[in-house]
Structures are given as structure tokens and as C-alpha cells.
TrEMBL record:
<keyword id="KW-0677">Repeat</keyword>
<feature type="region of interest" description="Disordered">
    <location>
        <begin position="340"/>
        <end position="361"/>
    </location>
</feature>
<dbReference type="InterPro" id="IPR032675">
    <property type="entry name" value="LRR_dom_sf"/>
</dbReference>
<dbReference type="InterPro" id="IPR001611">
    <property type="entry name" value="Leu-rich_rpt"/>
</dbReference>
<protein>
    <submittedName>
        <fullName>Leucine rich repeat containing 58</fullName>
    </submittedName>
</protein>
<keyword id="KW-0433">Leucine-rich repeat</keyword>
<dbReference type="InterPro" id="IPR050216">
    <property type="entry name" value="LRR_domain-containing"/>
</dbReference>
<dbReference type="InterPro" id="IPR003591">
    <property type="entry name" value="Leu-rich_rpt_typical-subtyp"/>
</dbReference>
<dbReference type="Pfam" id="PF13855">
    <property type="entry name" value="LRR_8"/>
</dbReference>
<dbReference type="GO" id="GO:0005737">
    <property type="term" value="C:cytoplasm"/>
</dbReference>
<feature type="compositionally biased region" description="Low complexity">
    <location>
        <begin position="340"/>
        <end position="351"/>
    </location>
</feature>
């Protein structure tokens, strides 16, 4: 045991690496207790404990008393069904790797996690390859978390409370059964890497354009048929992965359009003709309604719309090589491209109108992976 699991000691810090020893919890328990006793009288603190690919079914109890300065714990590739209260004693833990276990039940995480010191210390948490069907509520209270990995689980959705993780820089949720992206995901100011590949996502909310720090967005192997036009606002995006989606395979040619109400027609007239008004002329609800006007994105149209608009797919050139379908909202059917009335034509007005946007997008996005 001593030869196979020899500790690696370097310049004032120690790493104990007992990976792939195939030992049971009981055997490892006694060894860790012995190591803990040895270090109680030593000035040297154990900072890294690596226990992956053994036969652990629970965390060793010795963790709670013998390793108070531990910063990294790796228990990946075991048979853990729960992370017990021993975890809460690791007050300075920064990195917890527990991927490829059997976690996912209601008692998988220790009670009081959100109120423990780990809420302030834990920065990296990897729970990929487990059996979680939903994101545990206690994880959404770990305010210091910078990296969260829950890939390869059985997640059905992303909770709106994900916005609580304001320090999050990397979010990995690939390989689940997620169908929708909540708009609240756009409220993570520090997010650099967002991985949502290999899910069942059908649309991307325009609120993701608020992720101003985003550098990489992985959406491959989903059910996307278009992207929101607002994705062009991701000025730091360097990589966008879209392969394995039904993009550009098919898009809506038959436009449905419900006529605008008399209220909207009146409001459009006021906006288009620049009819002046003051807060003393109209009641508050009408002032707010007029303030909600959206300008038609067609550069050849000076119209506006409120609640009634036409959805149209617009192809934009990225990097001079790929054409991506972006969703646009036009003010009326008369403003739409010729393809709505001449479906045999493959070149539309909206394509030609995208020249300026294309050059801007090509400079912003360095790599687009479509196939």
C-alpha cells in the first residue's frame, strides 16, 4: 500500500495521490487516519488529495478531522451515491472533482452545504457523469463558484436561479435532456464558456446577447433551426459550435401574420410620422406603450412595430464561409423578402441586406464550427 500510494511532497505543500488502487472505503479509511496522525505534528499541510478510480461507496470519515487545509479533492470514478457531512469540514476546499459516480438522489449532497464555509471557498465543482435529473438547489447558493460541470447527467431543465452564480466563468451542461435555455442565463456577467451541446434545445433566447464576456458557445447536436439576431452583440465570442443541428436544412417560408390592433396602428402612425406628444397629453399606460416600440431592422423600411410582427429567417455570412440563419422580426408582410412570394428564388433581399452585418460578424467571430 505504501509503495502504490506514495505521497508526492513538494516545496511546502503535499499531494497525496492514491488513484487507481481499487481499495475499499474501509481500507482507505485506516490509511487516511494514519496519514492524518502523521501530519498533526507537522507544519506541512496536505493541500491535494487524489482518490479517483477506487471502490469508494462513501467519503472516508477521516476527511473531517485529518485534513483541515485541503484545497483539492478528487473522488471521481468511484461508486459514491452521496457526498456525506465529511465534506463540510473541508472549510478551505476550492476544487471538488466527483465525476463519474452514482450521485443524483435527494441526499446526494450534504445538508447545510449552502450555509457552510464551502459557500465562500468552493470555486470548481465537477459532477459530470452522474445521475442528476435536476440541478440541486444547494449548488445554486455557492456564490464563489467559477466552474460548474454537470455534463452527462439526466438534467431536464436549467433553473432560473442559475443567475445566482454571479462568479461563474464556465458552465458545462452538455449531454443532458435540456429543451429550453432560460433567459436568466443571460444574467451571468463573468461567463466565458457555455457548453450546451448534445441536448434537445430548439431555440436560443435573445437574452444570451447580454453575456458580454462570452468567448465560446457550444450548441452542437441540438434541434436548432435558427439563431436570434442578437447573437451578433456577443462582441468577444471567438468560437461558436453549431454542427449537428437542422440549421439551414429547412426554414419557414409561409409567414403567418395577425393584423395589428387599432391601438398598435395608431401608435405606429404616431411614431412613423413623428407626431409630438408630452406626458401631459396621454395617460401613463399609453406613454409606456409608445415607449415599447421596436424599429424594423429592414434598412429600407422606416417602420416600427409593437406586439404584431413578422418572423423571418435572415442568412448572415460569418467569416466569409458560413451562412447562418438568424431570426429577424419585421413590421409587416410587405416588408418581408421576395422569398415569401417567390419561393423558387434562393437569393432574398434579406440576404443582400446582410452585407454590412456580415463583415462586422466575421471580424468578431474567429471560428464557426458547422460540420
Amino acid at each position: 500500500m505504501e509503495e502504490a500510494g506514495a505521497a508526492v511532497v513538494t516545496a511546502g505543500e503535499a499531494e497525496l495521490n492514491w488513484s487507481r488502487l481499487s481499495v475499499s472505503t474501509e481500507t482507505l479509511e485506516s490509511e487516511l487516519e494514519a496519514r492524518g496522525e502523521e501530519r498533526r505534528g507537522s507544519r506541512e499541510a496536505l493541500l491535494r488529495l487524489l482518490l479517483p478510480h477506487n471502490r469508494l461507496v462513501s467519503l472516508p470519515r477521516a476527511l473531517g478531522s485529518g485534513f483541515p487545509h485541503l484545497q483539492l479533492l478528487d473522488v471521481s470514478g468511484n461508486a459514491l451515491t452521496a457526498l456525506g457531512p465529511e465534506l463540510l469540514a473541508l472549510r478551505g476546499l476550492r476544487t471538488l472533482l466527483a465525476k463519474n459516480n452514482r450521485l443524483g438522489g435527494p441526499s446526494s449532497l450534504p445538508k447545510g452545504l449552502a450555509q457552510s464555509p464551502l459557500c465562500r471557498s468552493l470555486q470548481v465543482l465537477n459532477l459530470s457523469g452522474n445521475c442528476f435529473q435536476e440541478v440541486p438547489a444547494s449548488l445554486l447558493e455557492l456564490r464563489a463558484l467559477q466552474t460548474l460541470s454537470l455534463g452527462g447527467n439526466q438534467l431536464q431543465s436549467i433553473p432560473a436561479e442559475i443567475e445566482n452564480l454571479q462568479s461563474l466563468e464556465c458552465l458545462y451542461l452538455g449531454g443532458n435532456f435540456i429543451k429550453e435555455i432560460p433567459p436568466e442565463l443571460g444574467n451571468l456577467p463573468s461567463l466565458n464558456y457555455l457548453v450546451l451541446c448534445d441536448n434537445k434545445i430548439q431555440s436560443v433566447p435573445p437574452q444570451l446577447s447580454q453575456l458580454h464576456s462570452l468567448r465560446s458557445l457550444s450548441l452542437h447536436n441540438n434541434l436548432l433551426t435558427y439563431l436570434p439576431r442578437e447573437i451578433l452583440n456577443l462582441i468577444h465570442l471567438e468560437e461558436l459550435s453549431l454542427r449537428g443541428n437542422p440549421l439551414v436544412v429547412r426554414f419557414v417560408r409561409d409567414l403567418t401574420y395577425d393584423p395589428p390592433t387599432l391601438l398598435e396602428l395608431a401608435a405606429r402612425t404616431i411614431k412613423i410620422r413623428n407626431i409630438s406628444y408630452t406626458p401631459y397629453d396621454l395617460p401613463g399606460n399609453l406613454l409606456r406603450y409608445l415607449g415599447s416600440a421596436s424599429n424594423c431592422p429592414n434598412p429600407k423600411c422606416g417602420g416600427v412595430y409593437f406586439d404584431c410582427c413578422v418572423r423571418q429567417i435572415k442568412f448572415v455570412d460569418f467569416c466569409g464561409k458560413y451562412r447562418l440563419p438568424l431570426m429577424h422580426y419585421l413590421c409587416s408582410p410587405e416588408c418581408s423578402s421576395p422569398c415569401s412570394s417567390a419561393s423558387h428564388s434562393s437569393t432574398s433581399q434579406s440576404e443582400s441586406d446582410s452585407e454590412d452585418e456580415a463583415s462586422v460578424a466575421a471580424r468578431r467571430m474567429q471560428k464557426v464550427l458547422l460540420g
